[in-house]
Every structure is written in structure tokens, then in C-alpha cells.
Amino acid sequence: MTGKAREEEGYSMSRKSKSFLLLSTVLLWATWVSASVAIVQSKGCNATACTFNSPTTSGNAILVAGATAGNSSNFTPTDNFSNPYVQNDRAGANFGANGTWLTLYRASTITSGTTTISTTSTGAVRTLTILEVAGLDASPVDVKNQAGNTWSGGSCNSAVTTTNANDLVLNFCIDNSSSTNWAAQSPWLGVITTTGGYSSGVESQNTGTVGTFTPSWNPSSVGGDYANITIAYKSGSPVRPITQPFVSIITEMYEPNSGNGYLALTFGTLWRGDYSARIR
Questions:
Q1: Which of the residue ranges 56-70, 196-210, 242-256 would you say has the lowest mean pLDDT?
Q2: How far apart are alpha carbons 235 and 164 in whole angstroms?
Q3: 271 vs 269: CA distance, rounded Å
Q4: Could you state, in order of their start, the residue ranges of all structural domains in the chain?
Q5: Cβ distance 107 to 84 under 8 Å?
Q6: What is the pLDDT of residue 129?
Q7: 151-170 as b/e, with b when 16 or more CB fall inside 10 Å?
């Protein structure tokens, strides 16, 4: 055997005499999930009380919009779980003894179960609209705008300019007709329309960006008494990822007596503290 051959054989045996790490790759990342606001369910009632069709979920919020008749008329909502309500906005106008007012309330971090909203009021409650909403920020009101008039009518198109890029914008619209079928116009989505006492409609947009949002309805305007509230609710903070950081390890090893020195290629995945390996 020549000196060169002995040198090459010695290198080969040295290479085969121990296992060693040829390649190891570690990838580490975590994805934060953007929060968003979603309407879970809604209902409209021509009554002083209204019950959701499905049980509410703990931690969500309830919005209650009510139309009342009479100068400076108002109402206060309560429910069978004693969730506390705060007033978010109010719009309307007085005309003689026959003013029309729209008032919006919110209860946050509610109790779960079959929920009935009841009211006490100054002036008759003509229509009541209730929404269950998920994903609100702890201080959820971004911006709001409103308008109302009596006798001469107007349009439910009070615009808002948001300061948060992931809002849920809602427009609540009422008029004192019993038969106006409020229809949301694109890009707004119709949430619910109620007729019978006063007529009311709710439409929504999930913004995805900061901007100015103007409600759009058909009919575009009404005569007589009307009021509308446009309000943008902020989403909660981004939530931590469900999965923990992901680690991927690829290891190629060599060992004696494995033919050409190649023994195994292992794939390791570390996911939430669990390790699984596949040998081939």
C-alpha cells in the first residue's frame, strides 16, 4: 500500500470512528394573532324587553340601542344577569311634545347564558335593538358621531374618521315611520332591520385600516323624525400565539460499519415542549 493510500484509509477510518454533527438548523419564531371585533348575534324588538335567540358568551359585550318618543326621552337597560350598562352615545331632537331620541348603551365582560334586556324609560320605547359583540378593547370607543332631526327629516349618514386600524364601525338608524325597510349599501353590511313601532336599521364595517367611513342606506333619506349614531369600536390587543416557538432540527450523522459512513438522517420538531423524531 502506498503512502498516499494509507493516508486516505486513515482519514476514512478516522471519519468512520466517531459520530459527528454534519448539519443542524434551528428555526425559531412566534406569530402574534391580530384581534378583531365580531358581531356574534343580533335581534330587534318592538317592545320594552328583548331576548337573544342564543345564549351569550362570558366575556363578550352587549350593545343596546333604543328609540324613544317624547321630548328628551330616554331609557335605561338592565338584564337578568345584572350586567352593568354605560351610555355610549345619544342622538335626536325635540319637536313640540313629540321628540324622537336614539340612545346607545354597552355592557362589557358579560355573564354567559340566555339574556333578556329590559328597559325603564321616560317616554315610550318604540324599538329596541340588541347585539352581542366579541373582541372589544377594554376601553373600546374609538370615535363617534351622530345627528337627528324632527319634522323635516334627514339622512343616516354621520361619518367617522377612525384612529385605530382594526375597528368595527356601526351605524344605528331610526325613523318614526313603522314601515321603512332600511337596507345597507355596499361596502356596509346589514346587521338587522326592525319595523313595526319605529323603523330601525343597523349596518357595519370591519375597517382593517384607518380612514373616514360614511354610512350608506337605501332609502338615502327620510322625512319626519329620524336619528342616527355612528360609532367605531376598537378591537382588543393582539393575543399571544396558541403555539409556542417552533424549533426544527435536521441532523445528519456518520458512524462506523455503515457502508459509506451514512447512518441516519433525523428530523426533530420541538412544538410546545414536545419532541418527535423520525428516522430514515
A1: 242-256
A2: 9
A3: 6
A4: 3-31+241-279, 38-233
A5: yes
A6: 97
A7: eeebbbbbebebebebbbbb
